[in-house]
């Protein structure tokens, strides 16, 4: 009996010691995982994760600043989806391909959740100025230069950097900067088809120093480019995705190169751009259109100082919150060999273009732009097209308003005349979410399949 | 011997079981503390805490986007402090009271570290538009309305809200909006002394629809206010902190009320402001000048739509990162009874004014503005002054350039002539950090104590 008691006792002791060893290693591991015990940041981090953990069936997102119902965030559904968890597809919903909202990049950021998250302390960057009293983050500038170095899409050496709230703001800043010191009125032009904002923005802000004149091609043909001329050159162009150079030449002609789409995502990079004024936007690099962040590379010091003056008087520099976010995003872009986002984006856009091309190739009524294969400095090989937009043309004589034709097929595009082109053209965005693109593709298939004589799909 | 062995054995077992109990309760507690195990947000939260944990001797801060040395963030030192941990005071350093940088509120946010922290996911708000396709957060709008309701400083009912990148951008947007549809040129005025940006900004952006004319008081005296007139009314005024009404009246006169400082921090609130165009900024409410966020309350729908058009063409709406940050800050402002920040700010500004007043009262050469006690709707009592700036006057006949006099005493202020006033005046900022204010106070004491005949301090 005593021996049995002793045996039980021994068993208890061994079991207890084993339990201790288990607890000890568990604590050590937990301590390793929670390398640093969080304190004041715990609540914010937990809240962000809680909001993001709500399921929207893969067809919606919840946001920290969205609506809440009974303390739970409400799903903001993708186009054509509805219901509390965005699980209902709305079959008669229109395929809206109007906007250049670059949400095709959303999955990239969801895949990089950990590295792209950012925790902002309540006291972070309250001041009007950085340590050097400027309104531009030096660290962010360095990251931008590195991104250009890796993508090989722009010469940055010997250029000044200016930040703006999107390329939108920098377009205006550049027009002001190039016309301020001029004795004569600067006439602002762009070669059709061109991005509508060049005209609407320049008209709205028209001063005694500049005015929007119209089509650069018309000006070229009329040989009337004397006096100060400012030409917007979009390369690759919006809407047709073709690489461009300035149409006008001369000592009194200044070009503003809008390189929003000059990334491997959307075009071959034959050589790094090396113009006097080059504008880029994070909207079309990382997809963060809502952040309102862009930058200009400027060669001339006077133009640079004028653009800084514009930014100072317009809004005292770009938000520090925006600059911090941009920095975090570019850190992720530069991770590893810094090439991942370009591969992700290019493959997605290329596949979308190929899908659309295939459908349209079966049509007798519609054509799309032809973008020839070209050598790319980034991929170091000849590559095919992957433009941001389809520039669709209605070829049938009676289809003078192509947007109306598509509207009949439950597709919304952007009218050609908005780009100073014919209404036979419609711009269709390839930039949006998979849900948007898939519906667009489906509707186009339907449209083409209804053509008499076209091969059935 | 056997009994002793048995005793040891028992001791081991009891000890082991005690250890079991310890580990068990420890794990349960750790599980309670880490209510939710973090995953993808852990890195960002840990990084933010690590950066913030670096000591800068209470005279500097480290930032996520600051410089790093050997993997450690570098302290950005407050004015007049230096060294790797900002522990060296630089005794001959100038007291710089030029800028209205509202860093006096920094300690408030450090005290509210947990509630004011914000974790932004990489995929957060990438789109150009919110769910309603607008560029203005509905949730943020609601919070702004609540803040006005608690501070009782503005009637919001029946008004439209417009967001801008700081009040700076909204000043310009309002001028455009009020002059766009006018048949005649709108002349823009402000009553001296006035905030310099009204002139510099309006001159820079001058269109065919408006031009800066000058002093509203001159226009009043010359009875020349026919035709479209736009008057900037700053209340309380910058630089002198006095409450103001429009100087000009008439059906063709439109006033833009710049209420940047119309908070209990800086002035009595005799009644909620109820003007047709009222502009506020988060810079002077929470102190987040770097965020570039402001809002306008607008009565007239056409003016409102014009301001929206301005925001659309200028930059496609305010950054979503900025709006998210502003929302988090206003959530903290509204915590509890929503009155804490007003008490914090008022007491700090009041104490600073009393300190300055006391010094200057001993001087025969310098005077400051007189702000009479006034009933305040927020504090529900008569209260004294707590303005953002000292509007110092050099009274001695030979001191025609007051800024130069102060410069001789190692103080930098802002020249009176910049405000369209005499150079006998200097504006001294009371808005900066304790380090800045303490040095300003010290230098002023020195200056006044050197006056012949003045009481020694």
Question: Which key terms come to mind for this protein?
Answer:
homodimer, 457 residues, alpha/beta, 7-stranded mixed beta sheet, 4-stranded antiparallel beta sheet, 13 helices, 22 strands, 17% strand, globular
Short description:
Two copies of one chain form a homodimer. Chain A is an alpha/beta fold.
Please state the overall shape of chain A, judged from the principal axes of the Cα atoms: globular
Tally of strands of chain A: 22
Based on CA atoms alone, the radius of gyration of chain A comes out at: 27 Å
Note the beta-strand portion of chain A: 15-25%
Gap between N and C termini of chain A? 87 Å
Helix content of chain A: 25-40%
InterPro entries (chains A, B): Alliinase_C (IPR006948), Alliinase_N_sf (IPR037029), EGF_alliinase (IPR006947), Ethylene_sulfur-biosynth (IPR050478), PyrdxlP-dep_Trfase (IPR015424), PyrdxlP-dep_Trfase_major (IPR015421), PyrdxlP-dep_Trfase_small (IPR015422)
Protein name (chains A, B): Tryptophan aminotransferase-related protein 4
Cofactor (chains A, B): pyridoxal 5'-phosphate
Keywords (chains A, B): Aminotransferase, Membrane, Pyridoxal phosphate, Transferase, Transmembrane, Transmembrane helix
